[in-house]
Amino acid sequence: MGCSPSRSASAILVEPRSTPSINEMKSDEELPADSQKEEFLKELIDDTDFPNEEFLQESMKSGKSEGSSKYSSSSWDSGVYELEDDYSHVITENSDPGKVREVDKEFVPNKNLELILVGKACPARLSARDRDVMEQQAILEVLRDEGLIVRPPSKAVGGIRFELVEAQNALSNQSSSIHKLPPLSIRKKHKEKKSELTHEEIQQKLIQAEERRKKRTEEKLNKIATKDRQEIQTIAEQQAEINRQKLNQKLQTTTESREKYLSEMQEKLKAREEHANKVRERKKMLANGFKYVLPNGTN
């Protein structure tokens, strides 16, 4: 509405006429009378060719808007009072008074008018924790709709632990494992049939209970004994293995030292035998009269 261009009005061109100015009139001390003003306006209108009277009114309005647009934002030039073609039928404070009176006469108030507010409420802003809770509830609702059963078997610290089981499997397992109690009437009859126990029967039951207790105790002791024997046997085997390894290591070191000692003794005997052979050869040579020269050059 305010963005539509203002009406284009053609400018009025007035030819300059030699009229006395106000200063000249003051200097002559003669001001024009009312009759002179009317004659001047008639001459001005006669000299200018206007298309019609409406064009003159529009040009005057546009002239006023040009003068006041600098100071007012709600002038005709700003386009505030101009409506689009789609809203030309709307009655405003600037509409034709005759049209306004016609609308007032034709208006019939609706007494049984019902006003309905249609819309969607804005959701409240939730915290992160509340959003997580709502998401979990939505997931659980979807699982229930898909045929899954949510069963809380036990409570954990800080919440509930759930176990998800399919409906068909859960029903089949329950029917096979859980035995239903007989009706109340049958149970009452069964209780009535039971007679009071005698002293001998009580003693017999006590003896049987004692035997069962002893049997359980013996089984526990046997388990402990077998466990102890197994532990002792394993410990003995481990110790024997350690001793065997130590003995093998000792025998190996002894054998190595013995072999080393024997090799050293053989080398010593060999060196002694060589020295004895040299001494014998020297004695033979001396006995035969040969002059024997030692390796170092002495006799």
From TrEMBL:
Domain of life per record: Eukaryota
InterPro entries from the UniProt entry: Stathmin_fam (IPR000956), Stathmin_sf (IPR036002)
GO biological process: microtubule depolymerization; neuron projection development; regulation of microtubule polymerization or depolymerization
GO MF entries: tubulin binding
Basic and acidic residues composition bias: residue spans: 25-37
The protein's name in its UniProt record: Stathmin
Organism: Larinioides sclopetarius
Any coiled-coil regions, as ranges: 192-282
Pfam families named among the record's database cross-references: Stathmin
Region (Disordered): 1-37, 51-77
